[in-house]
């Protein structure tokens, strides 16, 4: 479970309860981050149960450890004055591209996205001669690499109560890898909770390639099936590690 405090000048603090998605035994604290945070004296609205007035919530390495009026705050905790503020569970947008770099190809299933990392070879083809060309397939793209703090939707989503998103690139049939992002932080890396977590699949036939392939749902399914078969063949063809 990842919790971030936004601004101390805000009237509301969001506590993102994402344990079901990304709980892990290892710590994910950033360098220099204290092992504990404590929001003291706030109004706390838990997931279940009555609202707690003038209470404290203690976060240990990104996980809510205790909530209550009499909780003992660890000596090494970073204490945040919550007087007059409200802490409540954050919402999760389970599939979006909020917080990612804008791409001219976004929303066009057959187009190639131009935002591959510099270390990856670019695909420049625009005409598909058949399924062997693999257009619209950019699995090397990763949402964690494309976080863009200038995306104005971050603040809009956050103001609406969303603290966490599952974000993925758009454009193509296999547009890239999705990641869990928190919508708060000073650097792009601060947003990343877990990556990768999934590879989205787009079965839309809108747009297609300039040659007209695939131009039907059956064609898209055949394309996807061939990609999966070729991937399996590639894995099997690699020399086994000793």
Fold and architecture overview:
The two termini are 37 Å apart. The protein is α/β, with parallel strands linked by helices. It has 4 helices and 10 strands. It has helices spanning 19-22, 153-159, 188-191, 217-237; strands spanning 12-15, 36-44, 52-60, 63-68, 78-81, 86-89, 91-96, 162-167, 178-182, 192-198. The strands form 2 sheets. Strands 1, 2, 3, 4, 5 and 6 form a 6-stranded mixed β-sheet that branches.
Keyword list:
4 helices; 15% helix; alpha/beta; 242 residues; 4-stranded mixed sheet; 6-stranded mixed sheet
Summarize the structure.
With 242 residues, the protein is α/β, with parallel strands linked by helices.
Sequence-ordered SSE layout with sheet pairings:
Elements: E1 12-15, H1 19-22, E2 36-44, E3 52-60, E4 63-68, E5 78-81, E6 86-89, E7 91-96, H2 153-159, E8 162-167, E9 178-182, H3 188-191, E10 192-198, H4 217-237
Parallel strand pairs: 1-6, 2-5, 2-6, 7-8
Antiparallel strand pairs: 2-3, 3-4, 8-9, 9-10
Oligomer: single chain
Helix content: 10-25%
Distance between the termini: 37 Å
Number of strands: 10
């Amino acid at each position: 479970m990842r919790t971030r405090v936004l601004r101390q000048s805000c009237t509301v603090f969001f506590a993102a309860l994402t344990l079901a998605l990304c709980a892990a035994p290892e710590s994910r604290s950033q360098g220099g981050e204290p092992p504990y945070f404590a929001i003291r004296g706030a109004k706390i609205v838990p997931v279940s149960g009555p609202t707690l007035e003038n209470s404290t919530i203690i976060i240990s390495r990104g996980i809510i450890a205790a909530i209550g009026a009499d909780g003992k705050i660890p000596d090494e905790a970073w204490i945040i004055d919550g007087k007059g503020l409200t802490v409540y569970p954050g919402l999760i947008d389970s599939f979006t591209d909020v917080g990612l770099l804008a791409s001219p190809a976004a929303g066009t299933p057959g187009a190639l996205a131009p935002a591959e990392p510099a270390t990856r070879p670019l695909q420049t083809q625009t005409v598909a001669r058949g399924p062997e060309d693999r257009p619209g397939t950019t699995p090397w793209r990763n949402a964690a690499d494309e976080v863009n703090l200038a995306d104005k939707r971050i603040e809009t989503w956050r103001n609406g109560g969303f603290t966490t998103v599952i974000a993925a690139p758009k454009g193509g049939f296999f547009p890239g890898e999705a990641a869990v992002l928190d919508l708060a932080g000073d650097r792009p890396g601060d947003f990343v909770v877990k990556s990768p977590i999934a590879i989205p699949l787009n079965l839309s036939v809108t747009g297609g390639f300039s040659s007209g392939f695939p131009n039907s749902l059956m064609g898209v399914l055949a394309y996807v099936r061939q990609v999966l078969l070729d991937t399996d063949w590639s894995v099997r063809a690699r020399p086994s590690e000793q």
